[in-house]
Write a structure and sequence with these properties.
There is one protein chain. The protein has 82 residues and is an all-alpha fold. The protein is 62% helix and 0% strand. It is built from three helices and no strands. Helix 1 packs antiparallel against helix 2 and helix 1 runs parallel beside helix 3. The relative contact order is 0.14.
Length: 82
């Protein structure tokens, strides 16, 4: 059995929070902005715990899966150069 890394734990944490988004009566826009702040908080914690490479991997994971870009994700098409 593979040992779970801190990166895996942060991914699972974000996935768990996002999964619960549709359990409210908020509008889609309200849910998006409310939960963006929750994911942002998780990312802030990750910044202090993960090594730089893992943090960048987490940023890209969140962008690819949920569309939140925390400032250093590359485009979904891996087309950063244009």
């Amino acid at each position: 059995m593979k040992k779970e890394t801190n990166l895996d734990k942060f991914k699972a944490c974000i996935d768990k929070e996002v999964k619960a988004w549709n359990m409210t009566t908020l509008s889609e826009l309200e849910k998006f902005y409310q939960n963006k702040m929750i994911v942002w908080g998780i990312m802030e914690a990750a910044l202090y715990i993960l090594p730089f490479k893992d943090y960048q991997t987490l940023i890209q994971y969140v962008y690819d899966k949920y569309g939140y870009n925390y400032g250093s994700a590359i485009t979904k098409d891996d087309d950063a150069a244009g």
